[in-house]
Amino acid sequence: MDDIAGARVAVVTGAASGIGAATVTELSQRGWTTVGLDLRPSTGAHHAVTLDVSDPAQVRAAICRIERELGPVEAAVCAAGHYAIVPLADIGWTEWLRMLRVHLGGLLNVCRAVVPGMVARGHGTIIGFTSDLAVGGSDGDVHYSAAKGTVIGLVRALAAELAPSGVRVNAIAPGPTDTPLLAPDSPWRRPSYVRMLPAGRLVSPEEVALSVAYLVEEGTFCVGEVLSPNSGSVI
Amino acid sequence: MAVALITGAADELGLAVARRLASEGHLVALSDLPRRERLETLHKLAAKLGGPGAALVVPADVADPEDVARMVAEVEERAGEPIGILVTVAGYLATAPFLRHDPDDWWRVVDTNLGGVFACAQAVLPGMAERGGGRMIFIASEWGVTGRAGATACSAAEAGIIAMAKSLGRELGQLGIAVNAIAPGVVDTSRLEADAREAGVTREVIRTRHAARVPLGRIAAPEEIAAAVAFLADPRMISMVGQVLHINGGTTRARG
């Protein structure tokens, strides 16, 4: 994809696949210069940085380089994440920490790197990714739900803190989305479950990307809001 | 593209919604109370949007279910197809301290605001189901989420609209009909004039007063609410079902 000179820069974490990949496609189509941050190469983005979002130093270095070479980051979308269904008794401390460091830490690290510039410029927007499982909770999802729940808390507080500076912070809480995050044998793919959803089907990554695009480009009065494209899983 | 019925279309918020949906290629049916100045506003907008064929003007009182049914039948007949998008903006605003609110007026608020949405949803549903899907977008209010002193009737009605969007979302999702609500904060419309007159100050002063309690430091432009309507009306968005979009500059921040 061709880089557009002078286009606004959007950074998307988790951009190598699923929701993050759909987001870079949607934003690129809308004329943004997209930069994908992921453990694996983000092949759909204009630029890709391979890194671990849970590492503050790597994220800070990447954002510094992006702003130096491409210009100020106008939009930061934090979609990087991983998922596992594990009963409480079987969650190891390492897995617990990893879940928090990736979801909450990934958002925190990006925010700490992009917020100073956004505040100085008086505009910019950040989107965190939470989940219907944070809003509704579910069996076997203790560490994932807890980690995604923290995202809502951070977004609410940071939204209040940064709104007077003109920087908008919001979140998206997708329901079960048809991405590699849902294993082929995931219970969220079972026909008996999908039939129960009010929309009768899984969420598509493109719908989540449209939600991102709405919040970034047109949700100019949305602050601390959580959008829930979830097929009705949690209402 | 679809036929989009917009109630309360003569209000600045309704006008913004109509303009936005028309710009996306929908045929808009503009409804408001059959009062002369409102009809003039609707006809003026319809003419601007391209005259007959691009916009219909269909006055009705949403508080009267029979009138609503007649209006919907008229839209379907004149458009030659069922309504695909319903946007309910119409509302009657009256506030008073709880014990001083005249019961008849109290019920008029509920029966116009909540009853109007019920009547519209019921009237458009058969056609929407027949065409294989659609969108219902109910404009509620922040008051339905946070409550407001002196606005028990409005708050009850708006909270009812939100709850109805959730239940109807569940009920109609499998038919391909996505039902959602939008709960705006204070929007910069002529309603502020009434507040200003009541308080004996200018609209600008009222704007500033409202803006002071909004984290973003301002109130909403009607176009920002219209953008949320367009997002929910997007034919590609099926997975937003039974949700509430809080477009309020950060006053509630995902409270409910």
UniProtKB/TrEMBL annotation, chain A:
Gene3D superfamilies reported in the protein's UniProt record: NAD(P)-binding Rossmann-like Domain
One GO term of the biological process aspect: fatty acid elongation
GO molecular function annotation: oxidoreductase activity, acting on the CH-OH group of donors, NAD or NADP as acceptor
Pfam families: adh_short_C2
Family as reported in the entry's similarity comment: Belongs to the short-chain dehydrogenases/reductases (SDR) family.
Protein's name according to its UniProt entry: NAD(P)-dependent dehydrogenase, short-chain alcohol dehydrogenase family
Organism annotation: Thermomonospora echinospora
Automatic annotation (TrEMBL), chain B:
Domain of life of the source: Bacteria
Keyword terms, alphabetized: Oxidoreductase
Chloroplast among keywords: no
GO molecular function term, any single one: oxidoreductase activity
Xref: InterPro entries: NAD(P)-bd_dom_sf, SDR, SDR_fam
PANTHER family, per database record: 3-OXOACYL-(ACYL-CARRIER-PROTEIN) REDUCTASE (PTHR42879), 3-OXOACYL-[ACYL-CARRIER-PROTEIN] REDUCTASE FABG (PTHR42879:SF2)
Similarity section: Belongs to the short-chain dehydrogenases/reductases (SDR) family.
Name of the protein: NAD(P)-dependent dehydrogenase, short-chain alcohol dehydrogenase family
